[in-house]
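Case study.
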Amino acid sequence: GAGVSQTPSNKVTEKGKYVELRCDPISGHTALYWYRQSLGQGPEFLIYFQGTGAADDSGLPNDRFFAVRPEGSVSTLKIQRTERGDSAVYLCASSPSNAGSPLHFGNGTRLTVT
Amino acid sequence: AQSVAQPEDQVNVAEGNPLTVKCTYSVSGNPYLFWYVQYPNRGLQFLLKYITGDNLVKGSYGFEAEFNKSQTSFHLKKPSALVSDSALYFCAVRDSGGYNKLIFGAGTRLAVHP
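After joint prediction, the assembly is written out as follows.
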């Protein structure tokens, strides 16, 4: 079946602009996660959704970052007033809610802020 | 807080030789441990997990991992390496928050030489 789909695959934007990154999870997966991966580092947790609600947003670095999942499926990560330090690969993952279920990752969106 | 450490930035091995990629963990309670692999410009792919049961866990592509509670380790192994195994490998532990949020290590680059 289809895996996790992330669009766009690459996004180049100018400093100060607003961007939206989209994630389409595996059908039926109630849990959705956003991670950020900088070059040479492991994925860093940003936010977790269970259904429509953000159950844990402790990883969002500041209030420029926001994410939604209005219908419990597709999610959008929104970044306002982008900074060069926001450049990274943004990974989305989904999973069933069963304890210990592995996360299934998309191929990520590479964001470059110039 | 839950954490994992991958002490090696890079592991080099000749094709056909056994490989080991190291991971140690620090958790409160019983650990849920995972290994993921990442190929260039791709998301993370699940390899295997340990939740409970046998200390030797078998996973995808001939990989296995050994859970050692006394040494708090979860090393990834393969009896005979392939050039196509060359990739980034991440160890991860489930966070203690009661859902499947994962905390990742910094990653180990495996290079298999012909």
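Observations recorded in class. Chain B has a mean pLDDT of 94. Chain B touches chain A through 24 residues (CB under 8 Å). We will return to this complex in the next lecture.
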